[in-house]
Design goal:
By secondary structure, this protein is mostly helical. Helices cover 69% and strands 2% of the residues. It is built from 16 helices and two strands. Strand 1 and strand 2 form a beta hairpin. Helix 2 packs antiparallel against helix 10. The two termini are 40 Å apart.
Length: 371
């Protein structure tokens, strides 16, 4: 395959994804449509989280909080006189604004401290909801959320939401891919390789991290807004801490620092989650079994991926792709022949750099591996 075809391949894959996402709902049952929508919503969240972890080099254990903020924003506004479309548009804006305010002090932390700081954001979110019952419905939640309307178009059936969600997925993939190819994207890739090196070359590390953190939250906010209209009901039980852990696992499984890895990871982990949840419906098994199993299965998945495929499933596929073709001289130069494992940072950039080699700033790989 020529180099020109290789460069066009990502565009063709996005076009194929868009076509499949439009055709597939026609052949799915009601139950499978719900799973399909869930995969799409998770993909949107994980695309933003992948930008944060793979490019800014920051682990977030509180992404479900921003998912929930987007959901509650859309739900509350739609119940207080706003149109459903206006509420949906406000969801990512409000979420991004709150993430910006939270990020100003939070992003002063580094490594493990930052990861646990984002976990604290999740716990604070879950603690605040019951204390604001007059607005959020507390532990009982909010019901009677109106259906989503986009102009004259009513979004009512599961198939309608499937189309809407996957249109947003494709749009998010395009935005993320273009961002990684832009000047800010190059700055983020430099930060992922070495924070001190990026700073020395003029990259405003703090500002870039804050913008990336805000954008990541906005992706979660729009997904949360769609989710609440799809379900028609919202309660804090929908945003447990384990959901934030699932999002992180999706990023790692798909491939840290890759845009398409968000889709691969979301599909695999969502399917695993659905299988574990189905076990809870069996009356002969304990109700707590899915939760206990999920912790064990997720731990096993993380161990296997970090040890056998640190670049994720997308990284494995890339390696197989390269082995299938002739090795280019540029690939040899970029790896330096040192035998150091590299993780692709930035899809379609034509370069591979070691992920977070700056020991002074441990990133997602070192945090998850416990190093």
């Amino acid at each position: 395959m020529t180099e020109r075809m290789r460069r066009r391949l990502p565009v063709l894959l996005v076009a194929a994804l868009g076509l499949i996402s439009l055709v597939l709902p026609l052949f799915l049952s009601t139950t499978n449509i719900e799973i399909y929508v869930t995969i799409g919503l998770s993909t949107i969240v994980v695309i933003g989280l992948s930008l944060l972890m793979g490019f800014a080099g920051q682990v977030s254990l509180g992404q479900a909080a921003f998912y929930g903020i987007g959901s509650y924003t859309a739900a509350i506004l739609s119940l207080h006189g706003w149109s459903s479309l206006e509420a949906l548009i406000a969801a990512p804006i409000v979420t991004a604004f709150l993430a910006f305010l939270i990020g100003i002090p939070l992003l002063r932390l580094q490594g493990h401290a930052l990861a646990f700081g984002t976990l604290a954001v999740q716990l604070i979110f879950l603690a605040v909801i019951p204390e604001t019952a007059s607005l959020t419905g507390g532990s009982i939640g909010l019901s009677g959320i109106p259906s989503l309307r986009i102009g004259p178009l009513a979004i009512g059936s599961g198939r309608d939401y499937a189309y809407l969600v996957w249109i947003v997925v494709v749009a998010a993939l395009i935005v993320a891919r273009n961002l990684t190819r832009s000047r800010p994207g190059r700055g983020l890739r430099a930060m992922a390789a070495s924070v001190s090196g990026a700073s020395a070359t003029g990259v405003e590390v703090v500002r870039y991290r804050l913008k990336d953190f805000t954008l990541s939250a906005a992706f979660a906010g729009i997904a949360g807004g769609i989710y609440v209209f799809f379900i028609g009901y919202i309660s804090p039980d929908a945003f447990p801490v384990i959901l934030s852990i699932e999002f992180v696992i999706m990023v790692v499984v798909g491939g840290i620092g890759t845009v398409s890895g968000a889709l691969v990871g979301a599909v695999l982990v969502t399917v695993i989650s659905q299988v574990l949840t189905s076990l809870g419906t069996n009356p002969s098994l304990p109700a707590q079994l899915p939760t206990v199993l999920s912790l064990g299965v997720y731990a096993l998945v993380l161990i296997v991926i970090l040890r056998l495929a640190p670049a994720g499933l997308v990284g494995v596929l890339r390696n197989l792709w390269k082995k299938g073709g002739a090795a280019s001289p540029s690939s040899s130069r970029e790896s330096g022949g040192t035998g150091v494992d590299v993780v692709p940072i930035g899809e379609g950039t034509g370069r591979e750099v070691p992920l977070l080699v700056d020991e002074a700033s441990p990133g997602p790989s070192t945090f998850l591996a416990g190093q």
